[in-house]
Amino acid sequence: MSLNLNKKEVARNKNKGLILAAAEKLFAQAGYDGASMSMIAREAEVPKANVLYYFKSKDNLYEAVLDRIVGVWNLGLENVTIEDDPAIILYRYIKLKIKLAIENPKLSRLFASEVIRGAPYLQSYFRNNTRPWIKEVTALFYGWMDAGKMNKVDPNHLLFAIWSTTQYYADFQAEVLVVLNKLEYEDSDVDEITQSVSQIILNGVGLKLPELD
Amino acid sequence: MSLNLNKKEVARNKNKGLILAAAEKLFAQAGYDGASMSMIAREAEVPKANVLYYFKSKDNLYEAVLDRIVGVWNLGLENVTIEDDPAIILYRYIKLKIKLAIENPKLSRLFASEVIRGAPYLQSYFRNNTRPWIKEVTALFYGWMDAGKMNKVDPNHLLFAIWSTTQYYADFQAEVLVVLNKLEYEDSDVDEITQSVSQIILNGVGLKLPELD
DNA sequence: TAATTTGTTGACCTTTCGGTTAACAAGTTT
DNA sequence: AAACTTGTTAACCGAAAGGTCAACAAATTA
């Protein structure tokens, strides 16, 4: 009755999934206002009324989409201790962030659009998740600084610098590509970006780029 | 007949100005899709038909708004030579960028929204203005690097790093403020941001923060 | 299998969208 | 002041927006 799902529950999950995927795609492409419920329904290949059966309003659907992607966006820097080498940890984190941004630029842009709009739905997420997470990371950074392992910088701004420089390649892709005179990123670009960004940030806090990874 | 304006020309300029200001405000607040022509008309306190008399379509108005703000956004780094001290020049540039971002966060966000949407209107601007400008700056940076004045980094990525870290405080203001547990930026925040960002970027390319400014 | 819950969907609702039109007012030119 | 150009604006247009509803189909439960 709840563990082994019956036909209805299967269909329910399948349809909700289809709709969420379509909504994610369209919100990411066109933004909240630019994507319409009928476009989403068409993309999911279900009638519009069905979309509104599962998600009671556009807001509700948008929130569900954000909930789903927000988890992906805050990976990294778990299980790190003061004993670890900050150069290696930060390098890996930056590399991961750039990989995520370039592999899922649309999700990054959806996230960015939401924050630019004033983060009406993510505000509470920032308060309840990001802020406590940052407190831990701050303690970690201060530990490294006190141990003389890295220069003293405000950990908040260091994190902002990492986030901004990495996400930039997804959010401002349209500008970056024109400037670089490219149609799309290649693997070699990802390496160069990782290299340049890591070099600036790591040197920026008095660390040396680790050899290879 | 064209130097000293008659009544019609005065009214024309005044109304176009009112509408442009209202459009700028609303596009910045709500984005292209989020702002409607009637909202803009209401804000400008003119009938909607009047808005469409001066600007033949929403696209046309949006373009006019972008044209007006784009000039503001590309200041700095003019009249700089290889003889100048890169630490001072870059520090001033970063400081200016942060000042601009925090004083005009809405313009920064409007710019960001446009680029996130794929820069349909700014693409040609990037091609015709930003790219040549960057070429000059690239030469300057390489000059400094060859003279041993700063570390070797790809100038493109260095510029991206400066733009991203500075604009972040405007575009992602909603997130930054929650994390910093503030309602709005204070003067002291601007100083701290300038300090932290400059420190990371300058050290990142092997430069020392100049004392004071 | 009868009764009931849950899912499906076309038709429809109101509101708002970007945009047009046409009649009129105001200014400018002759 | 007549002729003409330019600016103003209420009324209106079709399309599309988000959302509701009611009739029906399909499972599930009793």
Structural description of this entry:
- Chain A is 73% helix and 0% strand.
- By secondary structure, the first copy, chain A, is an all-alpha fold.
- In chain A, helix 4 (58-73) crosses helix 6.
- The longest helix of chain A has 28 residues, at 7-34.
- Chain A is globular.
- The first copy, chain A, starts with 6 loop residues before the first helix and ends in a 9-residue tail after the last helix.
- The relative contact order of chain A is 0.10.
- The mean pLDDT of chain A is 94.
- Chains A and B meet through helix 1, helix 6, helix 7, helix 8 and helix 9 of A and helix 1, helix 6, helix 7, helix 8 and helix 9 of B.
- The structure holds a DNA duplex (30 and 30 nucleotides).
What does the secondary structure layout of this molecule look like, with pairings?
The structure is a homodimer of 213-residue chains.
Chain A: H1 7-34, H2 37-44, H3 48-54, H4 58-73, H5 86-103, H6 105-116, H7 123-146, H8 155-171, H9 173-180, H10 187-204
Helix pairs in contact in A: 1-2, 1-4, 1-6, 2-3, 4-6, 5-8, 5-10, 6-8
Chain A binds a DNA duplex (30 and 30 nucleotides) through residues 6-8, 11-12, 15, 36-38, 46-50, 52-54, 56-58.
What does this entry show, briefly?
By secondary structure, chain A is mostly helical.
What is the tally of beta strands of chain A? 0
**Topology of chain A as a string of helices (H) and strands (E):** HHHHHHHHHH
What overall form of chain A do the CA principal axes indicate? globular
Biggest sheet of chain A, in brief?
none
The radius of gyration over CA of chain A amounts to: 20 Å
Number of helices of chain A: 10
| Broad structural category of chain A | mainly alpha
Average pLDDT figure of chain A: 94
